[in-house]
Amino acid sequence: MKTGMDYSKADDWLIIEDKFDNRALGKCESIMSLGNGYLGLRSAVEERYLNEQRDYFVAGTFNKFDEEEVTELPNAADITAIEIYINGEYFTLDQGKTEAYSRRLNLRTGELIRSVLWESPNGNKVNFIFKRVVSLKELHVVAARVEVMPLHDQADVRIVSGIDGRMSNSGSQHFSDGNKRLYEQKYMQFVQTTTQSKIDFVHTTVLNFTMDNFVPELKSSIVMDRRKIFMEYSVQIPAGKTLVIEKISDVFTSRDRELEGTKTEDIQKYSLEALKLAEDKGYQTIADESAAEWERKVWSKTPINIECDDPYDQLAIRFAQYHLEIMVPDHDNRMNIAAKGLSGEGYKGHTFWDSDIFVLPYFTFTSPKAARKLVEYRYHSLPGAHKKAAGNQYEGAQFPWESAWLDDGEVTPVWGAADIVTGFPIKIWSGFIEQHITADVVYGIWQYYMVTGDQQFMHDCGYELLMDTAKFWVSRLEYNDEDGLYHINDVVGPDEYKEHVDDNAFTNYMAYWNIGKAIEYYQLLKENEPELFAKLSVKLELERVYQSWLDKKDKIYLPIPRDGDLVMSQDKTYLTLKQVDLTKYKNQTNIGTIYQDYNQEQINHIQVSKQADIMMLFFLMEDMFSLEVKRANWKYYEARTLHDSSLSLSTHSVLASDMGETELAYQLFNRASRIDLGPNMKTSDMGIHTASIGGIWQCTVYGFGGVRMLNGKLRIEPKLPKNWHKLKFNIIWQGQRLEIEADEQGFTVENVTGTENIFYDYHGTQYRVADKAVITYENNI
């Protein structure tokens, strides 16, 4: 990269920024963000800059600014800013000279370290080291450490830091100005309350100072103003001596499970006492405990090791695992993963189908406890799904395109960017007519059940979800007298460059599959679980609905490959649309450049795709279509797909692996992994791309590792790219931890748990592994 992140200088655990550029702050703020699933902290630096974005989110704390806006995750008070003045000069890299600079995120430990050698405009040379960690062990704790060493002359230093409640979400202020207090002349506390949802946030912080392991003589004073509380400190640092500043902070909210129903003043006491315990540990112990938790929870349990020619590939998969871990709220099943995780304000903290199809599988295969929290969220959000279905005059559960709190229902904004032709804002139709998400949710839940065997979840939640959504789909179907078939008209499929289409192939097939699963489990429960069946029958009117499933399922219109070239139409009209030269857009540096030449209405009438629906259909319903059909449609749609969705490249990579096009799959994997990590300094300004992050894991494990769940069975068919010499990873299947290692000669499957026999398919043959099984490729392929 021209600025920052030179991977040739990094080992495969470090994200490195080696040059500061205040015009591109968003990149590192996002990809170096810290978190633990409970809270997310965007990595803005300690000193302030014009283009910075300081975001601090607590999962599940949604608020609605006013009736004209939708629910969003509010940006809480900032606790990261530390202003430092050296002999009266403000420390900023916008002034003076930066003689050395490095910022590193250690993916293994979750610690962010920045080193700066700075010469002020007046010639004061100072060495700074900034460290920061969000504890993976203590979910409420954020710790920071700053070292300041003047090199040549004594320095009079002033430090200003505290809690700043003047944050907003792009101008929308979600908090009232709450109580502020200083305890014992050192502990600062600030209470915020969200304006609409009335959630209390209690922030408490403390700063401590040492020099040569002693507390230096310093002056301090408290500053309270509107929406902020700060302390100012003054101290002299002799040349060559190092002042160490430790800032320990915590946050608790009235929505926390353990604090529900607790009075605000009691939460304040709780926060203060918790902070004192963290303060006693100090920065290094907090960081060490967090690093140990990373090792215990992630790296020792779900390692992915790649022996390859390019160390970037190993870094990319660890980057993905790191961000997957810090975005999952596995402490609470009332919330899910947002489209930007907790790394930025993009998509307002809302959950999309990205979570169910691209992110959930990682946890399903590696951390079933976390996965269960995510699928339970979908069950607990059924009130919102019922609200949406009823509002559209449908039955059953229709899941919102964008979800927030459990009973919010649809929270997709109505208006988006400007139309280049009309000059008006573009209406966002996804929240109205992008309906495939209902089946996507069910697919993720069914995959979870097949992989984990979690029968208790199905008994408590899963069967009801399957049937409630099928109830929606049959009420959504539209009968056509002319062909005697049921159609799904006026929708948006995964390809959002095509709005208001009829018979979108992906949507129709997924609805068909959803209803089919409901029929299957209806019959199973009626025969084997009469008590549960009776309960669900009353709740969902199953006797009536079941007959509707039987009457309509096999009459749903399903597009099929056309004669001759085997191409399937993405929707009713796609293959009849005008074709234009897409070379300019296929070679674009930034996504979405087609909107500079066409508006949405014009794009609707061109054979161009944001992502190919048909490829997505093949990805989920792999065994429904032949290899010949897949190849024919790949050739047709890849030429028309701009990959303007971050969901697209990884899907195409996995399908390329399935078709044996391993090197093409690797090229697509490489492009997918660079959506956030790559040289484009603007792609991640609004936060990282969670679907792409999950997609990197899918490219690796589904594609190159060849792992797939097909109709409840495990398939393992590795296909390594030529510059990967060995791939080793773990999955959990039916409660057993399997270690899979593949190289050019073959692969091994070891049952590390070793308490049950596991069966898996390899090219149509079933194998059993009790302890360890070895497969050697025929003809050394």
What is the annotated CATH architecture of one domain? Answer: Distorted Sandwich
Low-pLDDT windows of residues: 1-10
The chain-level mean pLDDT equals 95
The CATH class of one domain, by name, is Mainly Beta
Radius of gyration: 27 Å
Shape summary: globular
CATH topology name of one domain, in short, is Beta-galactosidase, Chain A, domain 5
Give the quaternary arrangement of the chains: single chain
Q: Specify the number of helices.
A: 19
SSE-based structural type: alpha+beta
Q: Span between N and C termini? A: 36 Å
How would you write the strand order of the largest sheet?
1-7-8-9-10-17-14-13-12
What can be said about the biggest beta sheet?
9 strands, antiparallel
Fraction of residues in H or I helices: 25-40%
CATH homologous superfamily annotation of one domain: Glycoside hydrolase, family 65, N-terminal domain
- In total, the number of strands is 30
Strand content: 15-25%
Topology of this protein?
Elements: E1 14-17, H1 25-31, E2 34-35, E3 39-41, E4 56-58, E5 82-86, E6 89-90, E7 97-106, E8 111-119, E9 125-134, E10 141-150, E11 155-164, E12 175-183, E13 187-194, E14 200-211, E15 219-225, E16 228-237, E17 243-253, H2 264-299, E18 304-308, H3 311-327, H4 353-366, H5 368-380, H6 382-391, E19 415-418, E20 425-427, H7 430-433, H8 437-452, H9 455-476, E21 478-480, E22 485-487, H10 505-528, H11 530-540, H12 542-552, H13 583-586, H14 600-603, H15 613-620, H16 627-638, H17 648-658, H18 662-677, H19 690-704, E23 707-710, E24 713-716, E25 724-733, E26 736-743, E27 746-751, E28 758-762, E29 765-769, E30 772-776
Parallel strand pairs: 24-28
Antiparallel strand pairs: 1-7, 2-3, 3-4, 5-6, 5-11, 7-8, 8-9, 9-10, 10-17, 11-16, 12-13, 13-14, 14-17, 15-16, 18-25, 19-20, 21-22, 23-24, 25-26, 26-27, 27-30, 28-29
